Amino acid sequence: MSDEMKRCPICECPYGYALRDHFYACPECSHEWDTKEAEDATGFVVKDMNGKRLQNGDSVIVMKDLPVKGAPKPVKAGTKVKNIRLRDAEHDIDCKIIGFGQMGLKSEFVKKA
Q1: What is the CATH number of the domain that holds 63?
Q2: CA pseudo-torsion sign 33, 37, 42, 47
Q3: pLDDT digits (tens, 9 = 90+) for 76-113
Q4: Contact residues for 32 (Cβ-Cβ < 8 A; gap 6+)
């Protein structure tokens, strides 16, 4: 077995340990994953401003006042956005913000909640 540790894809814990060939487990959230599947998976990765990986359904916090075209006020820093959806575009987060409705955000202006 390998003495190498892998970062958990669910909770980002850096102490994932090897169970058997290509299988790892997280001591914090008990998630088990196959590293070959993770490497072979096609798709894109979206990270927040701190480098944490975002996934569909996550909650994020807006970290900067963001002006909204056509709206009288900006989305304020500290606004929590729940149940995001990721997409491969310039504004890579689709979400619904109370008071503003459906909109797209850039991941560089949010952090994982």
Answers
A1: 2.30.30.40
A2: positive
A3: 999 999 999 998 889 999 999 988 999 999 999 999 98
A4: 19, 23, 24, 25, 26
Cβ atoms within 10 Å, residue 112: 19
18-49 burial: b if 16+ Cβ within 10 Å, else e: beeeeebbbeeeeeebebeeeeeeeeeebebe
Q: What is the pLDDT of residue 3?
A: 64
d(CA 107, CA 75): 14
- 71-79 contacts, C-beta under 8 A, 24 or more apart: 71/100, 75/100
Question: Strand pairing partners for 34?
Answer: 23
The range of the structural domain enclosing residue 75 comes to 46-112
**Do 101 and 79 belong together in one domain?**
yes
